[in-house]
Batch of 2 targets.
Target 1
Amino acid sequence: MNPPPLLSAQGVVKRYGSLTALNGVSLDIAPGEFFGLLGPNGAGKSTFMALVSGLRPLDGGTLTVGGDPVAGASAARHSLGLVPQHIALYLDLSAEHNLRIFGELYGLRGAALAARVDYLLGVVQLSDRREHIVRTFSGGMQRRLNLAAALLHSPKLLLCDEPTVGVDPQSRNAIFDLLQELNRGGLTIIYSTHYMEEATRLCSRIGIIDQGKILALGTIDELLGQLPFEEEIRFSAIPETDALLPELATHGEVATVDGVHRFRPRASYPLSSFYLLTERSRLPQRLFTSQRPALEAVFLQLTGRNLRD
Amino acid sequence: MNAILVLLRKDFALFRRDRTSIVLTFLVPFVLIYLFGQVYGVNKATPGPTGIKVAVVNQSDNPAAARLVDALKAEPSFRVVTQYVNADKTTRPLAEDDLRPLMRQDEFRFALVIPPDLLRSDTIGLHLKTYTNPRNDIEAQMFTGLLQKTIFSKVPQLLGQSLQERARAYLGSARLHEFNSAIAAAVTKQFGGDPAEVEARMEDGHFGLRRLDEDEAPAPPPAPGAPAPAAAAAVDPLSRIVKLENIQVAGVGIKSPTATLLVGGWSMQFLLFALTASATALFRERDQGIFQRVLSAPVSRSDILWSKFLYGVSLGLIQLMVLFFAGHVLFGIELLPQLIPLLVVCVVAAAACTSFGMLIAAVSPTPEAARGLSTFVILLMCAVGGAWFPVSFMPEFIQQFSKLTLVYWSMEGFSQVLWSHATWGELLPTLGYLALITGLVMGFSLWRFRRGRIFD
């Protein structure tokens, strides 16, 4: 028997005037999951995060964390920690002072608070900078502290709203490592991003969201399994290769993006047939590259648009 | 050259889109120029202050005393009050006993009593009594100067009458009559006229003294190399002729009433700037996403707003007390005897200032708009509210408008505590007004915050 979901959203609706930001979003997230919310800018990811963290009221549906409705300063708020997209810190105070403030807002006091501050400064590798003013930190250090501030009260659910925006690759990796370690320790994480690489690397299950609706939900394999092809073959759009397109179109999808043809053969079409065709056309093999499709392809399949459009 | 023109056009385009800069560049100086123009009496027929409220009690049956009252009523600098309004709205002439309590209630700050012995036989000059509550030196000196000017320019015969009374004391009525008859005869013999009429005019104090505002030949210029008459020398004889027996209703022994105005006024101005900046920091916290983090904790929007309010009140209290302490060190403002009332006034004033800052943050769409709006309103309130110069220096309609400002009531509170040593009963209305302003402004601000997008 599956454990009850830690977060349950059923038919969630949120409107801003005439704009429907979330339109009947339903999903359950089990304890211990690393759930990715993948979608382009404006898809509704941040709105969903804002609703889960109780920042805005719902216009329809239900949303519970640990069985408690998120609306109002209820127990649900103690169960979750939010890592906002911005560096939501007091930049003119020290790292330790910031953590103390946010810890006290959750009711931590005295030795318990000091212990959590010490522990988290160590986890984000800022122990030696604890008394330094946050404004003097690099972007990566600020991001790590931003993450630590959400963990002070030991939440059950961590909401990460695009927490690596503007971060250098090294700091990004450090944050990924930390999040994965926290997840292995049992922390449930919802991670919103428009980078499929991040979602692919981190998340055990992904929801693809666009225009306020969840378009697909599942593990990466489940999502890729929804594609009508297993491979994607790319080759330059030149007159010699253009001649192949009419025949290829009868065996799968062909799209041309930025001067590159993408052929996605149907599962019934063997790749050997493709390479036989290229040999007959006397085209060298080096013109063609084959790769497994990524989440980008799923998004394209679902919406007809690229994720970064 | 082309690049310069392009960049020049760019700067004007940016300026045109920046409402804050436009307000600070044109509107703020325009309003301040207008207000200072009113204070300096620019282009007015009668320069100087207008409408200084003065209570007048006439106890003399001398007809010239009635003329003095009429002259004071005609003087645009004064707004003369001669009637006491009873609770049932009926009126009666003011009595001297009414003056102190009414002045303690700040109904007026200056009063003139024309006593029965307006003219005394034992001394030359007029005997007048003034009651003053001179909260600032300039205002008090202005009242005295305007009073003397009115007497000399409008009813100079009072001085002649004074001389007659003095002569009567020395010579006796019969010999004075004989003296006046001889002078009248000599004058009419030389210049013509009716001796009886000239004698009557002399006894009425008309020694050829004209109203100073009548046509008069200009004084000859001083001889080359001769020293110019000293101002003090010109003033002192006048003040000896018009003897003002001043009874100070409040502030007796206070070293410098101006210090209270100075410290209180500038403290209020910078308190408003500081607290408005603090309140508009809400924008920065919003833009940094701090509200997102804080509100995701067990914290409500009201918690954030009330913490801001309490911070403002605390900061304001500290700032005011520190600056008044500086006033104590620099100018001798006496704080200790009035420390508790001063603390209370400072708390209420700081609360009012904080609510103003919250209002600015609540109604402004952007931090830039908040900065422009607050600069404009703060300077306006300080100018008309008495933080820079006494309210009485300004036209009547601005004086009425000033009572709508928290600066006016804060300055009233400081003055009542530090100058008048007001009782709690006397202080209560001022505190009540400030509390009312705070409540209304804060209530509106909270309503706006709930409807606005500051927490989005």
Target 2
Amino acid sequence: MSVLLAFCAALLFATGTWMLLQRRLSRILIGVGLIGHGSNILLLVSGGGGGNSPIIDTADPEDFTDPLPQALVLTSIVITFGVTAFLLALGYRSWRITHDDVVEDDVEDRFIARRREMDRAVAEETLAERDQAAEEDRV
Amino acid sequence: MNSMIALPIIVPLLGTALCVVVAPWRWAQRTISLSALTTNVVVAIVLFARVDDGGMEVTQAGGWPVPLGISLAVDRLSAVMLVVSAAMLLPVLVYAIGQQAEETRYAAFNPVYLVLAAGVSASFITGDLFNLFVAFEMMLVASYVLLTLGGRPGQVRSGMSYVVISLVASTFFVTALALIYAATGTVNMAQLSERMPELPLAVSTGFSLLLIFVFGIKAGLFPLFFWLPDSYPTAPGAITAIFAGLLTKVGVYAIIRTQTLMFPPDARQGTLLLVLAGLTMVVGVLGALAQDDLRRMLSFHIVSHIGYMIFGLALFTLAGVAGAVFYVVHHITVKTGLFLVAGLVERRSGSDRLSRVGGLVRSAPMIAVLFAIPALAIAGLPPFSGFVGKFALVSAGIDAEDWVIVGVSLAVSLLTVYVMVRIWSDIFWGDPEDPAIEAYVASDASRVPRLMTAAATTVVVLIVGLMVFAGPLYDYAERTAADLLAPQQYIETVLGGDGE
């Protein structure tokens, strides 16, 4: 049972990571969801194998399953669910604005990268002017 | 039972609930959130005084016996963080009310801001690793909402990358928790501290690295900082200020807490953290130099200074950790101040581009003074608190004979001075480079609301206060570091507390 779950978690992590590395927002969202499921399964199996429900006087405490990871995973699922819903809303908003779901580069980053090119162009122009002036002097 | 410890979490959450109830009346929301945060300041100061005199305080949530329930613990580190965060959250809210940005007038703003406050307090108070995850999520979800509240294209675009990167970090946090629970059978930090040395070194080192990765994303550590300068500047001034001041430092706090408390000395990542600290400092400050937008410049600058705090921690000596704690306190205050003043500059001149604004020292001398004090403090010029912090760190580095990092930190602090001088000479000196800006500055629209100036002034006064009380504060940081490096007392107080 646990081997199957561990394999399942590994598969979810692998596919999730692949999806997360894509440029399209819809795929990134799916990737985040898959990785989230993977980590939740991992959390669930972290308490060891299955057993009887941990209710006192219904079974031998030795046979109880560990209830703590179940409580933890519930919290974690709720949080992942909420954040994914928020992300979907944000994605929808982004689609309404740009009609595209490819994640863009940062505008300011591109501006700064362009500024370097502009600086270089200016520098080259100045150098050319200087060379030309030197040429004229010689003449 | 010492239930006062839980107040910094309960009061803001209660305020949130009330704010939702009175949502149609903005003034009622403001009254509630202002009083909740004022209460928080008072509670934090009382806790701070009590913890420094009488040792750390512990309570078990819900009265469950010790390792079963959630332990809430306030030691010296938590206490000082609580005081600083409460002292920043209040003036920033006042500033936000004064700013009257579109976002801060939404009904959602006040309740979400209070959730952020509760999440930050909960991160400092909790003694339980899973609860730390919940506290982080509380804080992060609130920050997602605050960042994208306006719904403008820039905010949506940068909010998206911010949410995705934080979500990945959270997922890895859950993964780390699962692995740690599977290996040790507990998520109580004090109990983890007892059980971690029993694990094989390779396993505990793995956990240590995984947690550094998770908190490194939140703290903006190299090479995980790239999301920070993209996302922070798009929010309205007040919100950027509180993000810049507090959120990354909660990540730093978590690194300090988990590294010192949970891991035995040979599983701590001193060398790795030193290398990362050096790279963080250099890359951050170089990134800042390249920017033309004031708030982006300051955002890159946060990254650079995260390096200093990690540098102090990575030495794992008394002086180093004390320096790191002092630096965290100093940096929260100063950075919040700088961002609030950057908001004033933007309001007064209608732009925050270095290449367009100029001559503000004549048109707005008050703002120039308000900028000069935190700028000098962050550049580390004596007698400001930045000097004390950097001096402590560098002398700790010299004692530990880590010459490379000492050299790097000194070079970076020179570059920091250069960044601040560039801002000063571009924005405050010279002539306005753009006629449109000149006309704007002369017009009535550029009047800065009094409330904004008052809030920014309060923070600047606190920065001056840090300078005046740098001595006692450094002594306190030293006591904190002594506690952190000998976690036995923390463990005994949490586990042997009133549960038995």
